[in-house]
Amino acid sequence: MVVTMKSKAAGESVFKVTFEWDDSQGIPGAVLVRNTYRSEYLLKTLTLHGVPGKGTVVFVANSWIYPNVDRVFFANDTYLPSKMPALLVQYRQDELNNLRGDGTTGKYEEWDRVYRYDYYNDLGEPDKGHPRPVLGGTQELPYPRRCRTGRPPTKTDPRSESRIPQYKIQEALNIYVPRDERFGHLKLSDFLGYSLKAITEAILPIIRTYVDTTPKEFDSFQDIYDLYDGLLKVPDNQHLKELKKKIPLPFIKSLLPVAGDDLLNLPLPHVIRSNDYAWRSDEEFAREMLAGVNPVCIKRLTEFPVKSTLDPSVYGDQSSTITEDQIQQNLEDGLTVKQAMEKNRLFILDHHDNFMPFLDRINKLEGNYIYASRTLLFLKADGTLKPLAIELSLPHPQGMQHGAESKVYLPAGIESGVDGQIWQLAKAYASVDDSAWHQLISHWLNTHAVIEPFVIATNRQLSVVHPVHKLLSPHYRDTLNINALARTTLINAGGVFEMTVFPEKYALEMSSIVYKNWKLTEQGLPDDLVKRGMAVPDSSSPYGVRLLIKDYPSPASSRPSWT
């Protein structure tokens, strides 16, 4: 007997099924489910009550069931492979084989559940004159694997995978990932139509007025402040109303206006809430290296002058030109440079070696001009940092093998006239380097890309009843979908990264070079802190390490997760 019951959640249905069961049938360890409807549905859980000898047995599915396909779901128990009940072993193996999909060919469809590896070979469009190198599979350009989509190769480069045309935007943004990897188990197309229309009709025209005369730039600081000051009024737009209803993320919802003359509700950055120009101070410049968007690159200074790790036979002498005389005057407590290093009070944000090999090519791109930067900082007695010097470098005009051409800039207040403005520019160039590194390496590569092969491997090698699978899977949620969408609109040729981050078409190639030095064993928080010299081993600490800068929010709040 089947009875429909009232659901506790909107859009969900609950059914009660009654059938006979006795002790001789044992305790069920798995259920087979077949969908006889014409369309798919999301099965969340199946709960058996009153099972003899057990009481309640729960089968957690959280999976889309497509028509006429048998699916198996195991009871919410945990088994190592050697402990799996004998009658369930074959079901476990069949399920893993389905997820591996080895031997399958052709383009995967939304109902496929295949986790296979592939290279990053779908970023460019060689058939349209926009090739990009294949990342992964070679020593020259290594890269984490991505989830295979099975799309055919391009005509001009059989190594590259074809892309879905930009004008087929809904299809492009529904790029293949196993269906259960989609955001909140929703189809992106469920709210995509509204979002596209809302953005094009209501948001873009407003933003465009601020960048129309200078592409990729704001015309003035005031244009930026206007984004936060409630001066951007959005016209009444039905699509915005529908979009706000359908987006499940509360933060994004809060940004979207819903009625005529509503404002684009961008949250005001804390740093300018009391002073519009607080971001220009040396204190804030240094603070953001510890508490800004990229607090994972600053290091303790252990040698002076600063040496380069670049191959001198290729890049010449890339050593820093910052001298002791230049920074001595800004040290405190009568310390020399050597004494300050010994007391762990000198730090560096070093983006010199990161960008120098690419500067020639990057600066030949239209509208681009950047420097490789080194920023030295001093830890004051009050526990805060202050900048001592910024070195900006370019490749030698006679060739990279001749080293770098560098200039050192020293702190100067706004009241210092030209020197003060030049110091502001030096800080800006250093910040641009750090911002690009954050977006490309700290965020994309080290947070998103490197995790994807672990997601694939977990689903290919570990059954859902394996204890490690149960521990890892919550941390993987939405990763494959986010990364697939990134390949569609963010990191692809002509995508958001190339339009907004200065390495432009060399951005992903640069991230591949960085990945050569990526080591899993160095990614744990304590190991990373010790490697960068931001902490020292300390057996008396409950975390095993002691921070050298107490006001370092990111690791201070994260350490409990590592104990």
Please give a structural write-up.
Its EC number is 1.13.11.-. Plant lipoxygenase may be involved in a number of diverse aspects of plant physiology including growth and development, pest resistance, and senescence or responses to wounding. Residues 1-79 form the PLAT domain. Belongs to the lipoxygenase family. GO terms for molecular function: metal ion binding; oxidoreductase activity, acting on single donors with incorporation of molecular oxygen, incorporation of two atoms of oxygen. There is one protein chain. This protein is an alpha+beta fold and 563 residues long. Among the domains are: 2-77, Lipoxygenase-1 (Sandwich); 189-267, no CATH class; 276-411, Roll (Nuclear Transport Factor 2, Chain: A). 34% of the residues lie in helices and 15% in strands. It is built from 20 helices and 17 strands. It has helices at residues 86-100, 169-173, 189-211, 221-228, 238-246, 250-255, 282-291, 312-315, 324-328, 337-342, 352-355, 359-362, 418-448, 452-461, 467-476, 479-490, 496-500, 507-515, 525-531, 553-558; strands at residues 2-5, 14-17, 30-33, 41-51, 55-65, 71-74, 117-118, 146-147, 233-234, 262-263, 299-300, 346-350, 372-379, 385-395, 404-409, 535-537, 545-547. The strands form seven sheets. It has a five-stranded antiparallel sheet with strand order 11-12-13-14-15. It has a two-stranded antiparallel ribbon with strand order 1-2. Strands 3-6 form a two-stranded antiparallel ribbon. A hairpin with a 7-residue loop joins strand 16 (535-537) and strand 17 (545-547). Helix 3 (189-211) crosses helix 5. The protein is globular and about 90 Å long.
